[in-house]
Amino acid sequence: MRNTILGLLLLVSPGCAFGTLEEGDPLPADAVDRLRVGMTKSEVLRLLGPPEEFRRPELVDALLRDAVPPETVDASAAILDDVFSYRYTRGDLRVYSVILFTWMRADVRSDDLVVFFDDAGRVEEFAYRADATGSGS
Length: 137
Fold this sequence. Notes:
The protein is α+β, with helices and mostly antiparallel strands. It contains four helices and five strands; from the N terminus they run αβααβαβββ. It has one domain. Strands 1, 2, 3, 4 and 5 form a five-stranded antiparallel β-sheet that branches.
């Protein structure tokens, strides 16, 4: 009887979990403020560090349209540097659960920076979005 009561108490007792998420490197606001059209790739790298992702958009577009057979693409050409992407993501997660009822709240925020270079390897344009929120319950 005692084991049955203990089992029932464990079954209906609430559970909860908390967690944090952090991915990428923070984008210092002062560094983003110093980013200018016309800067070279090496200046951008010194200012912001290595990008999370870099690619050539026209190669991606061509592959998606099947205009270029995958076997003809030079693997070294896939590591291209016409676009630098930086992203810093952080967030909090809360989960509460009682038997069949579960409540979850995720508060995730990200800072995104994309830098486009021209054929000469200089910044042509860039876009920065700070603290973009995507939360869900």
